[in-house]
């Protein structure tokens, strides 16, 4: 765990900031030198995560365009602890560091996708306010990443986000300590409806 913590701190220290913009259901292009055939080792991921990591299934997250260091971090966490997986923990046991680096390189260079799904705009409006208050500092403003190393949540599949947030709340996912505090504050002040509003804001995919 301490290794992972150090790595997270390293990610925070390095920091990111790049801006992207997208229409709902569209992909946005990131600089890519992957015009050719994807490396063999990432093709096994497509069966669940979709072509290029853009998932078509609400239960499975898109992994295209996630920050490289976040990918390295979360893939290690599935294997060594800190992130709960129904399946990813077993999958990651089969790969070495070199292969994992190829995956992180490849998926971080694919275009980020804002998924199209049914979200209620009344809830999304409320969720936007809650995001600004509790989550924006780390998870970014609209499609603009923060410098804290956390992935964008906007445009993510609602089912996946709902379950994943639950995993942090019950503690089988161990994230950032400050994030745990903000999640606890959110639940204390706004309860389940607050959480659901946030999910609809992310699902709506409009900054
Ligand atoms: C059998 C289906 C399946 C395959 C194959 C698969 N994944 Fe996953 N992946 C999932 C599911 C489901 C989750 C959600 C966590 C869980 O339940 O394990 C997930 C979560 C993830 C996440 C976390 C995304 C986030 O937003 O934090 C990453 C990164 C990831 N997978 C990468 C990969 C890579 C790289 C491969 C190829 C080696 C791969 N996955 C192969 C099903 C799969
Ligand atoms: C202090 C910074 C910080 C704050 C504030 C924060 N997070 Fe996070 N969050 C992170 C980091 C860092 C990660 C990656 C942790 C990991 O590797 O498990 C993360 C991961 C997540 C994930 C998993 C993403 C994925 O694709 O699997 C979700 C969902 C999430 N946060 C939701 C929230 C919500 C909702 C809020 C606001 C209530 C919030 N976070 C506030 C830093 C933060």
From TrEMBL:
Keyword Transferase among UniProt keywords: no
InterPro entries membership: Cyt_c-like_dom_sf, Cytochrome_c4-like, Cytochrome_c_Oxidase_Subunit
Signal sequence range: 1-22
Cellular component terms (Gene Ontology): periplasmic space
Q: Which residues form a coiled coil?
A: none
Q: At which positions is heme c 1 bound? A: 45, 48-49, 88
Spell out the molecular function terms from Gene Ontology. Answer: electron transfer activity; heme binding; iron ion binding
Q: Which cell locations does it reside in?
A: Periplasm
Q: Which parts pass through the membrane?
A: none
Task: Report the superkingdom from the record.
Answer: Bacteria
Name the chain's protein.
Cytochrome c
Its source organism is: Candidatus Thiodiazotropha lotti
């Amino acid at each position: 765990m301490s290794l992972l913590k150090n790595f997270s701190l390293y990610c925070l220290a390095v920091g990111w900031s790049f801006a992207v913009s997208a229409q709902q259901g569209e992909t946005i292009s990131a600089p890519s030198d992957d015009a050719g055939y994807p490396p063999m080792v990432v093709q096994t991921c497509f069966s669940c995560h979709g072509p290029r990591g853009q998932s078509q299934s609400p239960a499975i997250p898109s992994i295209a365009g996630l920050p490289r260091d976040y990918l390295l971090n979360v893939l290690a966490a599935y294997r060594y602890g800190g992130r709960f997986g129904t399946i990813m923990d077993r999958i990651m046991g089969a790969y070495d560091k070199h292969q994992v680096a190829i995956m992180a390189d490849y998926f971080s260079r694919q275009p980020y996708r804002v998924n199209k799904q049914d979200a209620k705009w009344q809830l999304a409006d409320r969720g936007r306010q809650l995001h600004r208050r509790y989550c924006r500092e780390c998870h970014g403003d609209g499609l603009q990443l923060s410098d804290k190393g956390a992935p964008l949540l906007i445009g993510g599949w609602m089912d996946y986000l709902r379950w994943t947030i639950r995993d942090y709340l019950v503690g089988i996912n161990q994230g950032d300590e400050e994030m745990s505090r903000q999640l606890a504050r959110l639940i204390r002040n706004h309860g389940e409806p607050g959480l659901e509003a946030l999910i609809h804001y992310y699902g709506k995919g409009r900054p």
